[in-house]
Design brief:
It contains four helices and no strands. It has 76 residues and is mainly alpha-helical. It is elongated and about 60 Å long. The chain starts with a helix and ends in a 15-residue tail after the last helix. This is Uracil phosphoribosyltransferase. InterPro entries: DUF6341 (IPR045922). It comes from Flavobacterium lacisediminis. GO terms for molecular function: glycosyltransferase activity.
Length: 76
């Protein structure tokens, strides 16, 4: 059973965490490049938030949004 868990350890440490180790070493030389994945996710989230707010404004302008104080019929 010990060799099974050592095999799992070897899989993660020797293979699956290699990209994270490379990013950790890259951070010492260039912080911006090491965090490029984070910046990409931030840009995607900002674009999604902008699109969502734009769509909410379109529904509000057409009076299609229902602003009822109760969310469900059983709360009335």
């Amino acid at each position: 059973m010990k060799s099974f868990f050592e095999g799992i350890q070897s899989l993660f440490v020797d293979f699956l965490f290699l990209p994270m180790d490379a990013l950790r070493e890259l951070e010492l030389t260039n912080w911006w490049t090491a965090n490029i994945l984070n910046w990409i996710f931030i840009i995607i989230c900002c674009a999604a938030m902008t699109y969502w707010i734009k769509q909410l404004n379109i529904f509000k302008a057409n009076n299609e949004d229902e602003q009822d104080t109760t969310a469900h019929s059983f709360l009335k």
